[in-house]
Design goal:
Blueprint lengths: L2 E2 L4 E3 L2 E2 L4 E2 L2 E3 L2 E2 L4 E2 L4 E3 L2 E2 L4 E2 L4 E3 L1 E3 L4 E2 L4 E2 L15 E3 L4 E2 L4 E2 L4 E2 L4
Parallel strand pairs: 1-4, 2-5, 3-6, 4-7, 5-8, 6-9, 7-10, 8-11, 9-12, 10-13, 11-14, 12-15, 13-16, 14-17, 15-18
Length: about 120
């Protein structure tokens, strides 16, 4: 079964087995074995099996590959209304088995195939 922590807020999302969620998740698909720590935000995204989203990380309009880790304070993607030029907006993608380090920003339309 999944575990939804006391600090979690999950709305309009699919959460599969083996997940631990203690952050905020909205309009997303969370695959098995995913961990979303307290203070993390996942909006309009797909998290593949085994992902770890650390405290304070922000995932918006993104796909995060299997067993990837998004460290504290990192951001992957952005909401369309937060981008000045709509032509620059798109889905951000992080490949499998990668790490997005603290403070990093994966821009909309960017596809990451190695750790940043």
């Amino acid at each position: 079964p999944q575990s939804i922590g006391k600090n979690a807020n999950v709305q309009n999302s699919v959460v599969t087995e083996g997940c631990y969620i203690d952050g905020n998740v909205e309009f997303s698909m969370i695959s098995n074995g995913v961990t979303i720590e307290e203070g993390a935000l996942v909006l309009d995204s797909i998290l593949m099996p085994g992902c770890v989203i650390k405290k304070g990380a922000k995932i918006e309009y993104a796909i995060v590959g299997e067993n990837s880790v998004v460290e504290e304070g990192a951001q992957v993607g952005s909401r369309p209304e937060n981008v000045e030029n709509r032509d620059e907006w798109g889905i951000a993608v992080v490949g499998h088995n990668l790490t997005v380090s603290s403070g990093s920003y994966v821009k909309p339309k960017q596809i990451i195939s190695e750790s940043v």
